[in-house]
Amino acid sequence: MSTPSPTEIHDKAHMRRSMSVAALIMSASVLLSRVIGLGRDMVLAHFAGTGVQMDAYVAAFLLPEVVNHILAGGFLSITFIPMYQRYLAAGDREGAQRTFSNLLTVGTVALAVVIGLCMLLAPDLLRLMQHFKHTPRTDADVEWARLTVRLTRIILPAQIFFYWGSFLMAVQYAHKKFFLPALMPLVYNVGIIAGGVLLGRRFGIEGFAWGVFAGAFFGGFVIQLPGLWKLGVRYRLVFRPRDADLRKYVLLSLPFIVGLSMTFSNEFMFRFFGLFMSQGAVSYLNYALRVMMMLVGVFGLAFSAASFPFLSQLAAEGKMLELSRLSDSIVRKTIALVVPLSAVVFVLAEPTLSILFERGRFTALSTASTAPVLQMYLLGSFAFAGSTIVMRNFFAVQNTLTPMIVSTIAVAASLPLYWVLGRAWGSAGIGLAASLAMVVQFFVLFGMWKVRHARGTSLWDVPVALAKVSVLSAAGGGLCLAIVTLIQPRLGFVPRGLFRSLVLSVVAGLPSLALIFALLDLAKVQSIREIVALVRRRR
Predict the structure, then answer these.
(1) N- to C-terminal Cα separation, the chain
(2) Cα separation of 539 and 533, whole Å?
(3) Nearest to 391 by CA among 287, 262, 536
């Protein structure tokens, strides 16, 4: 084996430093976005609680999610960045801008047609979904249907801004620029909150729908324009439906369109199966999924988004072992953070939800009904986070087919599970079905990547690390449960509400987390001091 040259050593060190900065930017962005997102959900909970209006608002995203999925909007950057980077590597900036302009134009035309049809047919599509709900129609059902159609028609056009934003952000990612793209989810969530606060008293839940539209416009489009201008990237009106790059983009995106991705399937499944349950079920699922996805977003989604341009570059250079080792390191760090936090929040599910949402129309009953759903989602949180990273490995080598086949099979196989567990345990059963499906998907994808592309690396490092972290986190969760059991009867004089939940969370949660991270450090599973030192260096 040849010794790396000083230049290669410098390049590797520079890449790791750059990726660390990118990961911290994206992690901070996702953290702030999730915090603001929780603020958004708090405002929603105050105005709408878990009643008909909230169910209608959540259901109104069903058609827009499908439209976004059909145009592969959620995965646009994954298929576009490698194409764009090849032009940059060849020094052909003109070709890069031409491809960018053509894909943006053709996609916008197609999206406008699809959105127009969906807006026109929204009542019929909704009636078709309601046809499978074998329960008597009540006045609440009629109100829900009318409101859902109206909210759907407000939210649908926002998909155009998401589509444009995906391209504008992908160009910046390709140039290793992360700041403005990192602001997108922040502005989007602020837009929803502003819409609800400014318009909610007059228009009710409809104000939040207009906030979605405004947040998508400003976050996905307006604030991204300066980034492209600074890079010298200009849009030109190019419309070439037969362009070779367009055909390649469609072929690469086809698995995402035909297949069922992780994000789309979870968003779709809880909304769809929630239609068959009692009033409030969709709302319980929505609140629980948002809290769980905060953990996944801060670590899994942020790390995967920040690392993808670097993984793509390693793949382009043929450095597969280095790519796999880097990915394994990210997965292990993600597991060492997500699993302990999930274990403690699992025990403190009710106090956590009470702190976040229990005010206005979100009552103590809403908290008690949502807590079991959150616990079921938390069981699969590590797999939600890990899958987003492992899937990027395949995308880096421009293999979009394999992860989508695995994901689609996992979703299809889980449909009976959703139905059976949903009927048996209601909303909590839906959460458990989602977690089980994601755990299977994660291990299958991880194993396939190792066998196909990383034979020189260990197959067992990540599973062994997961087992160790899980055992140590269970010990911390046990301590948390013991503290809660000990002090809760002694808090009878404290009225139920925010203060009591805060006391429980602090007194039981902080020592438990400290124990878990100390055990991880002693067991040399993950050095917490290393993470702290990294953050201090990057500050």
Answers:
(1) 37
(2) 10
(3) 262
